[in-house]
Automatic annotation (TrEMBL):
Protein name: Methyltransferase family protein
Molecular-function GO term, any one: methyltransferase activity
GO biological process terms held by the UniProt record: methylation
InterPro entries attached to this UniProt entry: Methyltransf_25, SAM-dependent_MTases_sf
TM annotation in the entry: none
Pfam families attached to this UniProt entry: Methyltransf_25
Length: 230
């Protein structure tokens, strides 16, 4: 499957998930409070870019705390749900990707929660690197992504395995059947960001035990970095 086809399939998969009510009633992830604390401690301007904002469940507490969030998502249904959730901010939600933003535009805070892992290793790296380029000097990059400690479920096959223990699977069952998804190693993320990004909240694992019929646990790396240059 080509990267273009994979990307289209991923967008279509998430469109179907949101249309079926995925995350509609779920609370914001706890990582949001760390983002707010870091932004407050850094005394940053109140603007943020949220890549893969979904239905707005994580945007709501950010906006309530005073951040002016521009939310992007490839799924039109997700954006429609976000606009209904926050009608006073409807014009701040946009269907699209980083490629649809003005060239060279940056933000004091850039957020990606469970989004940069889609695709092969190379594609996941490009997603994260592209987001990092959108962080203004002195700004924050706030990331939550799949971790290689995850018990991957449902059925899948491993299609890539890196020397750093990061790996990619292609699911053969479930809502992501046919799609490639990457699971990051900690050193992989640190090397990708390089010396230009200094940890504010170093990588830590957030582990969730799956409820039946799920099996095992799902691990996510969470980290916040400050871009040098301010």
């Amino acid at each position: 499957m080509s990267s273009i086809t994979d990307g289209v399939a991923t967008a279509a998969s998430w469109e179907a998930e949101y249309a079926n009510g995925r995350y509609l009633e779920e609370a914001p992830v706890s990582f949001v409070r760390y983002i707010l604390d870091a932004a407050a401690d850094a005394h940053l301007p109140g603007e943020a870019l949220y890549v893969g904002c979904g239905n707005g469940r994580n945007v709501e507490p950010l906006a309530d705390a005073g951040l002016d969030v521009l939310g992007l998502d490839l799924a039109p249904t997700a954006i429609a749900q976000a606009r209904r959730r926050l009608p006073e901010r409807a014009d701040r939600f946009q269907v699209g990707s980083l490629d649809d933003l003005p060239s060279g535009a940056t933000w004091p805070v850039v957020i990606g929660i469970q989004v940069f892992q889609h695709g092969t290793r190379a594609e996941a790296h490009r997603h994260l690197a592209a987001a990092a380029e959108r962080v203004a000097p002195g700004g924050l990059l706030c990331v939550r992504v799949n971790a290689s400690a995850t018990d991957v479920w449902p059925a899948h096959r491993v299609i890539e395995l890196g020397d750093d223990a990061g790996f990619t699977v292609r699911y053969t069952e479930g809502p992501k059947a046919g799609l490639a998804v990457h699971f990051f190693a900690a050193d992989e993320i640190r090397e990708l960001l390089g010396p230009a990004f200094t940890p504010v909240r170093d990588l830590s694992l957030d582990v969730t035990q799956r409820e039946a019929p799920g099996v095992g646990q799902w691990s996510q790396w969470e980290g916040i970095w400050r871009r040098d240059g301010a």
